[in-house]
Amino acid sequence: MINTKKSHKNLIITRLLAPILSSRDVVDILEKIIKKTDVKSVDLDFSNVKFVSRSAAHALLLMKERLQAKKDIFFINTPEDVVNMLRVVAANRIVSKKQKPEFNPRKIDINSLFKEVLA
Amino acid sequence: MEKIIIPKPKNDSLVAQLESLYKTFINAQSKENLNFDLSLLDWVCPLLILPVSAYINNTRSNCEINYSPIKSYLERISFPEGVDSISLFQQQVQKHKSFIPISVLRKEAGTSREKLEALFAEKICETLGNVSGAQNAVCYPIAELVTNIFEHSKKDVGFIFGQFYPTKNYLDICIVDCGRGFAAMYKEEKGLKLSDIDAISEFLLARRGYRIQDTETIGIA
């Protein structure tokens, strides 16, 4: 008997989701799609993806970890900016930044601001 | 329904627009139905017009634009309702070429919302003339701030609008939600009673600096 079950599937991100990924919930949608496939290995094709936000990158990495017992997930054709974002987010998960930059906002009364700038 | 005349900004600076916005809402009760009169406005930027659009949509308030000198501009940017679908967005852009409409992002729309957001960002980049590095510079703050709306504001609707001023050579993008605000967020999630000012400071201090390569960025809502 020939086993005709496919072992591999390619999912094109721009077609399934959008060319710019910014929110976590769209990654949840992607996870549902992946879970429905009957293959062991899935390529997530990032061709023509123009941007992935920090949140979406984090959600993608968490999804890959969650599914690793059941599916092998690979990110392919990933543009350089997307690769960099995934790497930064992944690095931050392993070793989070200890030193944060200084931020010293000046508080000003709104009416003083208007007087100062619009006089 | 109380009538609110939106005062004309003193000049075209962002602070002047902020002052006009502040004076518009200073006496309004929270979520009150209002009737906005735009007859005094002969020029607006996103900072002034988008919060008014968001308020009208959130409270089902009204507006009067028939006697406004900028009536045709307001119609081209789909003020006050905005567009909440890809087809409407494309229709408006097709009709009004260089004008990007006010875009309404609804959380439940899922991938359609993501595509609309992408379309908005792409149109902005196209308006800029595809300058190198512009895509990340445009997409990053839009993505961060829109995510903040759906993750923190407890509102499922966000509003975005952008305008490029070629003679002044700057891009103005505004992102608005009618959510609970920082003070309410700290009270509900951490039991902290903070004034609006202290809540904003606390949020900015807690979220300061997310380093991407050599560029420091701060995500704020």
Automatic annotation (TrEMBL), chain A:
Listed Gene3D superfamilies: STAS domain (3.30.750.24)
The cross-references to InterPro entries, in alphabetical order and at most eight, read: STAS_dom, STAS_dom_sf
All copies of domain STAS, residue ranges: 23-95
Name of this chain's protein = STAS domain-containing protein
Q: Which organism is this protein's natural source? A: Candidatus Nealsonbacteria bacterium CG08_land_8_20_14_0_20_36_22
Q: What is the lineage of its organism?
A: Bacteria, Candidatus Nealsoniibacteriota
TrEMBL record, chain B:
Q: In which domain of life is the source organism classified?
A: Bacteria
What name does this protein carry? Uncharacterized protein
Q: Which organism is it from?
A: Candidatus Nealsonbacteria bacterium CG08_land_8_20_14_0_20_36_22
Q: What is the lineage of its organism?
A: Bacteria, Candidatus Nealsoniibacteriota
